[in-house]
Each structure stands twice: as structure tokens, then as C-alpha cells.
From TrEMBL:
Residue ranges annotated for the AB hydrolase-1 domain, each copy included: 202-419
GO MF, any single term: 5-amino-6-(5-phosphoribosylamino)uracil reductase activity
InterPro entries: AB_hydrolase_1, AB_hydrolase_fold, DHFR-like_dom_sf, RibDG_C, Riboflavin_Biosynth_HTPR
Name of this chain's protein: Dihydrofolate reductase
Organism: Actinomadura livida
Segments forming domain Bacterial bifunctional deaminase-reductase C-terminal: 2-169
Transmembrane regions listed in the UniProt entry: none
Pfam families to which the protein is assigned, alphabetical: Abhydrolase_6 (PF12697), RibD_C (PF01872)
GO terms (BP aspect): riboflavin biosynthetic process
Highest classification ranks of the organism: Bacteria, Bacillati, Actinomycetota, Actinomycetes, Streptosporangiales
């Protein structure tokens, strides 16, 4: 996926307005190093994204210039976000809307560079579409002028990636990337989440071992971001989220409710695997969910099959036997052959799996002792149950039973998909159709 990189000349008081026309950027030397930074930035960019005002200034200046830098600026693809511009004259320019930017990021090509364009940057930041800020800060206070972020902008924490002086005049290059956002649950637990896209709100819940950085969840978020505002969060006890004892399923329902409140008070929800079971519990308890989709909640419908309990898994984790907790969960819970688990222990990802072993007890509490719980019949919102045609018989049977018990539910098979090996694009396409209904 392409990145959107915002690159700005900025004064100490945050002004970015007309650094060339007003001349303030020329009062201080940025040296050969600073010149090289800007040249490399343009040379490596795959496209330029601008607001109309900045575009018109560039379109007036660059076609008259010559040399390698000008040739790159004039030749690269350019996108202007505008509702009024009709016939852009600068070569290789296309007019788009801000809602089309998420789709532009998914297209092949190099990173997308944004210069100036304060209003556009603010709109992109509000949609969670900015991947990096490169700010060349000049030791100057102007006392007025257009700033990069206006008063009233939503709070968002950034992570400093690099800070270095360029030249000998006090100019500093600061590079930041967004941190995750947080919301506070009812018991005070901070819940970390990422927000991308624009449109109606969709909240994603992952299953066992996963965080919001899981490739399947991030892939689903990317697939939905063109039409929806997607909230992808770390369930308590993992990733960037906190974990206040004692655990209870109700607290996870409160976590989800806090995310929905942050999303505007009502949202559509998708849960994968045990995240689907949690989503069903929340909907049955009356959480403000408008549409619900789940992928293979891992209930055990076969007579006599007893997955490991919350008590068993919690005891192993409390004793420091994290590897044993993972092995028990995988063999008796996920029905994985012991020899396959033994092979996993030799892989470099095994320590990461053990790191979240304490949360396996949470999954057991959410899924219960096996059968699909009767209380899912209290789910009153339209529900889509997804299942893979290549999944095990257990997963298929559980999906059929969930779809049969939820009053307003339908079952949809994803051809060639399987539990733990699903293609996020396939799930994303099914969700897009359902959530758009």
C-alpha cells in the first residue's frame, strides 16, 4: 500500500503559508544537506497530491522551469483535490475528491507526496490517511499566517522518527509518524486503535493471538477504507491496550462499546473467529451495533468435545507456563495435531505467541464450553455469518448453527477460504456488500 507523506516548510509558530512568495524560507540556509533532502524526496515520490490553491501556484511556476528536478515535477502524476477545478492545464494532472484518496493509496506506485495544501492535510489527517509528516522547521516566528493544523483539530499523538539539523542556520528536519489512538473503557482500561478511511463507522475485532497489526485485520481495514471509517483495535491484554484485572466478558463488551462511542455512538461490527463470538455477545447484550458480521466463531458443536476452560488456561499462565497454555489451546481448543504444535515451537514467531498466552483464557471465556449459546438468539440486528468452503467440518457446523439461531441472519460461503488462512480481500468484499445494504 502506498504511503501519503506530508512535507512542509514550517516556522516555529507552525505557519506554512507561502514560504517562497513571502520569502521567509530564504532567510535561512538549509545547506547542501537540506537541498539534497528535498531533491531526494521528489525523486523518490510516485505522485504529487495537492489542494487547489497550492496546485495553482505550482502549475504557474514549474512548467517554466528546466533541469532534472523540474522534469520530475512536471512529468510525475499529479492529483488535485478540488470540487471546482475543471480543466487542469499542468501535464499529468487529474482532479479527484478527498473520498477517492484512500483508493489512490491502494493503487500500485510509489509514495504520494503532499506539499502545502493545509486544508487538504487537515482532511487527510481527520481520515487517518497520513502516514508520515516531514517538517523542515525554520527558526522564525511570524506571528500570523496559515498554520498546518487549525484550532479545533482532533487530538492525535505522533511518534518522532528522526530529528536532525540541516545547514548551519538552525533549520531542523523533524519526521513524525502517527501513533495509535486510545479510548478509555468503563473500568479505566486504555484501548488502542487505528482509524482509517471515511464514511459510516465499522469496528473490527480480532481473534486469538492477533493484534490490530495482524495482516488479515489490516487487509480488511484497507479493503473497507474507501467507503467506511474503519476502527481496528487491540483487544485488552494485547498490543497497545491495557488490561485491568479481574477479567470478565462484560468488560470486553464495554471495551467495544467505548470504541463505538468514539465512532459516533453507533457502528457496524465485524469479528473474526473468537472476535466473532465476542461480537455476538455484545450484540446480544444490546451494544449499539447496527449491522453485524462474523467469520467462523469457533464454537464446538460435536457431542463430547470440550475445549479448554478459562480456569485451566488462566492457571497455566499465572504459573508462568505460557508455552503449555498455548499448546493446550491449540491442541484441545483448535484441534491442531501435537506434532504441528511441536514444529511451531521451533519457529521465530513462537515467543510472540507466548507473549499473549494470558489472553487465551479470555478467548475461552468468550466462546464458552463449546456449543453455540442460546443467548445469540437475542441478537436483533441484520447479521452476516461468513465461513470458508475449505474450513473444517467443525467450523462449518458452527457457522450453520449461528446463522440458524440469530433471527435476522444469513450464511455466506467464501470459496477456497479456511479458518486462519482467509484472504482479507475476499472477506472485505463480502463485508463491503453487506455493510452497504
Amino acid at each position: 500500500m502506498r504511503k501519503i507523506i506530508v512535507s512542509e516548510f514550517m516556522t516555529l509558530d507552525g505557519v506554512i503559508e507561502k514560504p517562497g512568495e513571502l520569502g521567509w524560507a530564504f532567510r535561512f540556509g538549509r545547506g547542501e544537506e537540506g537541498d539534497a533532502v528535498k531533491a531526494d524526496e521528489v525523486r523518490s515520490a510516485g505522485a504529487l497530491l495537492l489542494g487547489r490553491t497550492t496546485y495553482e501556484g505550482f502549475a504557474q511556476a514549474w512548467p517554466r522551469q528546466t533541469g532534472d528536478f523540474a522534469e520530475k515535477m512536471n512529468g510525475m502524476p499529479k492529483y488535485v483535490v478540488s470540487s471546482t477545478l475543471r480543466d487542469p492545464e499542468w501535464e499529468n494532472t487529474k482532479v479527484i475528491t478527498v473520498d477517492e484518496v484512500a483508493d489512490l493509496k491502494r493503487q500500485p506506485g510509489g509514495d504520494i507526496l503532499v506539499n502545502g495544501s493545509a486544508e487538504l492535510v487537515q482532511a487527510l489527517a481527520a481520515r487517518g490517511l497520513v502516514d508520515e509528516y516531514r517538517l523542515m522547521v525554520y527558526p522564525l516566528i511570524l506571528g500570523g499566517g496559515r498554520r498546518l493544523f487549525r484550532d479545533g483539530a482532533e487530538e492525535a499523538a505522533l511518534r518522532l522518527v528522526e530529528a536532525r539539523p540541516v545547514g548551519d542556520d538552525g533549520v531542523v528536519l523533524l519526521t513524525y509518524r502517527p501513533r495509535h489512538r486510545t479510548v478509555t473503557s468503563a473500568d479505566g482500561t486504555p484501548i488502542a486503535y487505528d482509524r482509517t478511511g471515511a464514511g459510516p463507522a465499522v469496528v473490527l475485532l480480532q481473534g486469538a493471538f492477533s493484534t490490530r497489526d495482524d495482516p488479515i485485520m489490516t487487509g480488511i481495514a484497507e479493503a473497507l477504507a474507501a467507503r467506511f471509517t474503519v476502527y481496528n483495535y487491540d483487544r485488552r491484554g494485547r498490543g497497545g491496550s491495557g488490561d485491568i484485572a479481574p477479567y470478565a466478558v462484560q468488560r470486553e463488551i464495554e471495551d467495544l462499546t467505548a470504541l463505538i462511542e468514539a465512532a459516533g455512538g453507533r457502528a457496524m461490527v465485524f469479528g473474526g473467529s473468537s472476535g466473532g463470538a465476542l461480537a455476538l455477545e455484545a450484540a446480544a447484550a444490546g451494544a449499539p451495533i447496527t449491522r453485524l458480521a462474523v467469520f467462523e466463531p469457533p464454537y464446538a458443536t460435536a457431542p463430547g468435545h470440550r475445549p479448554p476452560s478459562h480456569r485451566e488456561l488462566a492457571a497455566l499462565a499465572e504459573q508462568g507456563r505460557r508455552g503449555d497454555a498455548v499448546e493446550l489451546f491449540l491442541t484441545r481448543g483448535a484441534e491442531m495435531p501435537p506434532e504441528a504444535v511441536a514444529g511451531m515451537k521451533e519457529q521465530p514467531f513462537w515467543p510472540g505467541i507466548e507473549a499473549v498466552a494470558h489472553t487465551l483464557a479470555y478467548e475461552a471465556a468468550v466462546v464458552g464450553d463449546g456449543p453455540v449459546p442460546e443467548r445469540v438468539s437475542a441478537v436483533s440486528v441484520p447479521t452476516l455469518v461468513l465461513a470458508g468452503s475449505a474450513s473444517s467440518g467443525r467450523m462449518k457446523d458452527a457457522a450453520r448453527e449461528v446463522a440458524g439461531r440469530v433471527p435476522d441472519a444469513r450464511l455466506e460461503w467464501l470459496e477456497g477460504q479456511a479458518h486462519g488462512q482467509a484472504d482479507p480481500a475476499s472477506i472485505g468484499l463480502a463485508l463491503e456488500k453487506f455493510f452497504s445494504g
